[in-house]
Amino acid sequence: MTEVSTDPGGPQPGADPRAVTNALLHESGRASAEQMSELLDEDAVALDEVGTVSYLPVVARPELDGEIEPLEDPRRSDVDGWGRSEHMRSLVRRLYDPLYRHWFRVEWEGLDKIPTEGGALLIANHAGAIPADAPAIMHGIETELGRTVYGLADTFFRTLPGVGTMWSRAGGVPAHPDNAYRILHDEQQLALVFPEGTKATSKTYTDRYRLRRFGRGGFVEIAMRAGVPVIPIAVVGAEEAMPIVFRSTLMAKALNLPYFPITANSLLLGPLGYVTYFPAKFKLRVLDPITFDVEPNLERYSRSRLMDEAERVRSLLQDALHDMLRERRSVWFG
């Protein structure tokens, strides 16, 4: 490598460019980009470990034809913004499928009424100490239609150690209007809600298939704001899979639970009864989608209109349940 001496006058005209570059580096500790581009035409300068300058040939950058292909997502996790993991859902589907097909023997009617794309708010009746209807609905739609379903439920599940994380990974989302709006409007996905809430899952067997009031029409307001249809699903069989005989107020207070059910399963099988369902035959009927002739994304909607529409949906669902029960010949065989 050529060396030059540095004097106060700086590099002399006509000096070798490499020597001049070395001189600049020794004087100032670095050379500006402009100085380097002026001094070197075809060579590139690199600084090695001891601070001397070496020369590397410049490789011409090839011209790119068309658009640059995006890089693969470097993230190893498949967890989405809601905490849902498709890997976990796939595992749950494999584990649940035998129960779905051979224990509950689920039958669908009108499944084609659920859209294959776009957002829609699915609502259904809810029952059982540990409800079996939500997994059946989500599993059936995901396996038969190939669509993701997010189940909106009370935030109580997130407070349980370990259960909250598993619930989110399996597609559970806290039931909040903002969450529902994002899923339905922004992401154009399917969301499943149970308008009766805990009033349904805490009722005893003597009140089976009697729908409770659908709140204050919150689900209707969500659908209106998001501009999506409401699709009711009538479920028969879940009431008998884990029927509640009575509720223990003392146990509920001791465990800080909304209610503590004493089920027929637990009376027959002991503690094992809380994780063992009776083999009731499940039948699900999808009703016609209900749309609302209102402008989406309004700040407020008529409270009386919301209540009327919620009651209309509840009546349609109740009538469907009565029809299905009249047609049913056996709890176990349908």
What are the key terms here?
334 residues; alpha/beta; Glycerol-3-phosphate (1)-acyltransferase; 2 domains; 7-stranded mixed β-sheet; two-stranded antiparallel sheet; 12 helices; 11 strands
Model description:
By secondary structure, the protein is an alpha/beta fold. It folds into 2 domains: 17-57, no CATH class; 86-327, 3-Layer(aba) Sandwich (Glycerol-3-phosphate (1)-acyltransferase). The chain has helices at 17-28, 33-39, 86-103, 133-144, 163-169, 177-186, 198-201, 218-226, 238-241, 249-255, 264-269, 303-327; strands spanning 43-47, 53-57, 107-109, 120-124, 149-153, 172-174, 190-193, 230-236, 244-247, 261-263, 283-286. Helix 3 crosses helix 4 (133-144). The longest helix is centred in the C-terminal third of the chain and has 25 residues, at 303-327. It is globular, with a radius of gyration of 33 Å.
**Main beta sheet:** 7 strands, mixed
Topology as a string of helices (H) and strands (E): HHEEHEEHEHEHEHHEHEHEHEH
Going across the biggest sheet, name each strand in turn.
3-11-8-4-7-5-6
CATH topology term of the largest domain: Glycerol-3-phosphate (1)-acyltransferase
Q: Indicate the multimeric state.
A: single chain
The backbone outline, from C-alpha atoms, is globular
From the N-terminal CA to the C-terminal CA, the straight-line distance is 92 Å
- State the helical fraction: 25-40%
CATH architecture of the largest domain: 3-Layer(aba) Sandwich
Supply the number of structural domains: 2
Beta-strand content: 5-15%
Task: Name the structural class.
Answer: alpha/beta
Arithmetic mean of pLDDT:
83
Low-confidence stretches: 2-6, 39-56
User: Could you name the CATH class of the largest domain?
Assistant: Alpha Beta
Number of strands: 11
Rg, Cα atoms, Å: 33 Å
